[in-house]
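Pipeline run #58 for the internal structure catalog. This entry was flagged by the ingest filter as a single-chain record with no existing model, so it goes straight to prediction. Upstream metadata was stripped on purpose; only the residue string is passed forward. Reviewer on rotation: M.T. Logging verbosity set to normal.
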Amino acid sequence: MSASICPDMGERVAEPFRSDPAFWRSVCASADAVLLLGVAVAGSVVLRFAGVGAGLAWLPFALPALFLVRAAFSTYRFHQGHLPLPALVDTVRGEQSWRDAERTAVAAVFGRALVRSRT
């Protein structure tokens, strides 16, 4: 999986999100987890119909879970490296405007991250 920035994806995102590889790793890992979740559901159903026990039918969910863990660690690294920029934190709402900026950045590129090339 490549967390490189597609040129058309990076233009939609404000700094400091645009230039931080941890942000892109987090978005891409989250998108991959969403796609793998669908595959895991299908795999689990197939395993149950094949007569596999309920405990083993949960096994396909391990890979999406690993991608979610990677996304969480990447998000943690991003937050450790960036204090909220004064321009994104207003005095009335405080940290909420920083969170809004982060949500806006993710929302701007998440759909493209789902359909990006993984080669």
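catalog note: Residues 14-114 form one domain.
catalog note: The chain has one domain: 14-114.
status: ready for reviewer M.T.
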